């Protein structure tokens, strides 16, 4: 029986990518070394870095003359601090949209940067985070940027591209949980960051994509924390996570083989529809998320009975449907169905939901 991993991250990688890693592992491109052993100063890595960066920008439809990509460490969490440290230099004041837990963490950490003011300009608190709040386009103060979280991993809500306005203000997005999972007009964003461990690579890689003309060198920052310095050093000011960049490169090729983000989004739409349809048809299970705000990536659901939820998670695991326990903040179940989850995995989950329901009538 095939095992499907519904974890929110680290998450599944495409089976084709795992097979490629397995084939490449002992001898990377005839070097006689594993990719885990090659030097980050070698031409082998430099080629890999350039190709990965070029593929990423191509997939995102961004001009490499205007946008740059950093391959960093420290997770999305580190960017909660580095974005304001680098980019909130004029007004020392940023606007944030409170769409859920990770948006709040980003705001909280930004507020710890000395001299920084953080204003929540929209919140989903009133609807208990079951829908995303409208992104404001007019502001009563001067801000260095507006920060949003495009996909709320815990609550399972998201801003689709149409819900992201073009702003006069620079726009920063934490895209950790739907990075390259659906189409956006990425040119609306001035800086995007994402931890890789959901849709792109194993944990240990953080991607930052930014508009070059918005990022300048900050002499008061250590090089490792300064975007412009890292860009100049091709993300190798210190030893970069070579293996993770290599896997990201394979995943990007895999995305291209699926027709780029258009193809990937169509697959993800089909998967999400399959799962939401089966939850809607169920008398036992339900999704609390407002249909207009539904995430394509993370689908939380409940029975309404905590003990039954636990029983479901346990029984599902026995059926090789793993990691369906909801985040501790909300309980219930959560199925994360990122790019690498095949439709067959979602169908297997839906079949099991039906089976469990039949047994508990
Ligand atoms: N932002 C979002 C939207 C997330 O889902 C997560 C992790 N679940 C984070 C930030 C934190 O990411 P990391 O562990 O890479 O720091």
Describe the structure.
The modification N6-(pyridoxal phosphate)lysine is found at residue 198. Its cofactor is pyridoxal 5'-phosphate. One of its GO terms (biological process) is L-serine biosynthetic process. There is one protein chain. By secondary structure, this protein is of the alpha/beta class. The chain folds into 2 domains: 15-257, Aspartate Aminotransferase, domain 2 (3-Layer(aba) Sandwich), CATH 3.40.640; 260-359, Aspartate Aminotransferase, domain 1 (Alpha-Beta Complex). 35% of the residues lie in helices and 15% in strands. Helix 3 (75-87) packs across helix 4 (101-111) and helix 7 (260-281) runs parallel beside helix 9 (343-359). It is globular. The site of 4'-deoxy-4'-aminopyridoxal-5'-phosphate has 12 residues, from helix 3. The site of 4'-deoxy-4'-aminopyridoxal-5'-phosphate (PMP) has 12 residues, from helix 3.
Major sheet summary line: 7 strands, mixed
Strand order of the largest sheet: 2-10-9-8-5-3-4
CATH class of the largest domain: Alpha Beta
Identify the bound ligands.
4'-deoxy-4'-aminopyridoxal-5'-phosphate
CATH topology name of the largest domain, in short, is Aspartate Aminotransferase, domain 2
What is the CATH homologous superfamily assignment of the largest domain?
Type I PLP-dependent aspartate aminotransferase-like (Major domain)
Radius of gyration: 21 Å
Overall number of domains? 2
Low-confidence stretches: none
Please tell me what the overall shape is.
globular
In the CATH classification, which architecture of the largest domain applies? 3-Layer(aba) Sandwich
For the secondary structure, the number of strands is: 13
SSE pattern: EHHEHEHEEEEEEEHHHEHEEH
Structural class: alpha/beta
Proportion of residues in helical segments: 25-40%
C-alpha end-to-end distance: 26 Å
């Amino acid at each position: 029986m095939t095992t499907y991993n519904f974890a929110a991250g680290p998450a599944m990688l495409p089976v084709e990518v795992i097979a490629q890693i397995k084939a490449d592992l002992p001898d990377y491109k005839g070097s006689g070394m594993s990719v885990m052993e090659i030097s980050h100063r070698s031409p082998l890595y430099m080629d890999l870095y350039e190709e990965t960066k070029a593929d990423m920008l191509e997939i995102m439809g961004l001009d490499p003359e205007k946008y740059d990509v950093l391959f960093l460490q420290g997770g999305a969490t580190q960017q909660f601090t580095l974005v304001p440290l680098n980019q909130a230099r004029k007004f020392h004041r940023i606007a944030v949209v409170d769409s859920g837990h990770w948006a709040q963490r980003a705001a909280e950490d930004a507020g710890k940067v000395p001299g920084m003011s953080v204003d929540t300009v929209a919140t989903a608190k009133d609807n208990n985070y079951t829908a995303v709040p409208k992104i404001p386009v007019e502001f009563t103060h001067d801000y260095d940027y507006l920060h949003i979280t495009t996909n709320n991993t815990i609550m399972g809500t998201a801003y689709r591209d149409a819900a992201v306005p073009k702003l006069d203000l620079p726009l920063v997005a934490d895209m950790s949980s739907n990075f390259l999972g659906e189409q956006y007009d990425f040119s609306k964003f001035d800086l995007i960051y994402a931890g890789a461990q959901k849709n792109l690579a194993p944990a240990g890689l953080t991607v930052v994509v930014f508009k070059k003309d918005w990022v300048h060198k900050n002499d008061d920052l250590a090089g490792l924390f300064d975007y412009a310095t890292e860009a100049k050093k091709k993300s190798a000011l210190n030893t970069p996570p070579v293996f993770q960049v290599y896997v990201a490169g394979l995943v990007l090729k895999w995305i291209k083989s699926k027709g780029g983000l258009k193809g990937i989004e169509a697959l993800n739409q089909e998967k999400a529809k399959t799962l939401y349809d089966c939850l809607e048809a169920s008398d036992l299970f339900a999704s609390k998320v407002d249909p207009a705000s539904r995430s394509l990536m993370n689908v939380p659901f409940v029975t309404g009975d905590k003990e039954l939820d636990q029983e479901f998670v346990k029984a599902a695991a026995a059926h090789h449907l793993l990691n369906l326990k909801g985040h501790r903040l909300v309980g219930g179940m959560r199925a994360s169905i990122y790019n690498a989850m095949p439709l067959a995995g979602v169908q297997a989950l839906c079949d099991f939901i039906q089976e469990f329901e039949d047994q508990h009538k």
